[in-house]
Amino acid sequence: MGYSGFSKMTDISSTVDTHYIVLLQQMRNAPERLAAIARDLPKAAHTWQSGPETWSISNVVAHLASTHRPFMQRLHRVLTEENPTVVSFGPEVARPEFEVDLDILIENFRAGREEFLDFLSGIEPADWNRPAIHEKTGPTAIELQVKDIIQHDSVHIDQAEIIVARWGTIK
Ligand code: NI
Q1: Measured distance CA(96)–CA(160) in Å, rounded
Q2: How far is the CA of 109 from the centre of ligand 1 (A)?
């Protein structure tokens, strides 16, 4: 799949502490994990929803891909402003797209994630502690935001696995 995590790890090891490399590697793994979940699914399953209000696996991947822009804008503010108050965003901002091929959605997620990782790899280790106030959850910092992204990935990867398991029971 053109995935070369170890060479990327070597690339950034000179500027980022090992601790942060582990976090960046977890972020880098997410598109690959979704690709693996989706790999053997027939096309009909890509947009299948278990109910009218639930997400398909395509919706999940599109949602994850669309979180990059608001997260990067937020982290750019934390880097350039002193303890800024940052606004909350949810699926209404990170909106799932429809009518886009799942393979393209996964590729968009991968490309956006690589761009995000390039951005994070350029941050000085000390800047990972830069503070901000999240309007809903309170004091935060770059490192905590990155951990939130990893947690958010994990929730939606679990969701994708459940969707695929349900598809398996109905077809
Ligand atoms: Ni979400």
Answers
A1: 14
A2: 14
| 122, 80 Cβ separation under 8 angstroms | no
Query: In which residue are the tokens 């690589």 written?
Result: 114
Q: Over the stretch 107-159, which tens digit does the pLDDT of each residue have? A: 999 999 999 999 999 999 899 999 999 999 999 999 999 999 999 999 999 99
Q: What is the arrangement of strands in the sheet containing 131-134, beginning at the earlier edge strand? A: 85-86, 131-134, 138-141
| Containing structural domain, residue 64 | 5-170
Task: State the DSSP H helix or E strand holding residue 141, giving kind and residue range, or none if neither.
Answer: strand 138-141
Identify which of 91, 93, 85 has the alpha carbon closest to the alpha carbon of residue 135. 85
Cα(64) to centroid(ligand 1), Å: 7
Q: What is the CATH number of the domain that holds 30?
A: 1.20.120.450
CA of 118 to the centre of ligand 1 (A): 22
Global pTM reads 0.85
∠ Cα 162 33 4 (to 5°): 175
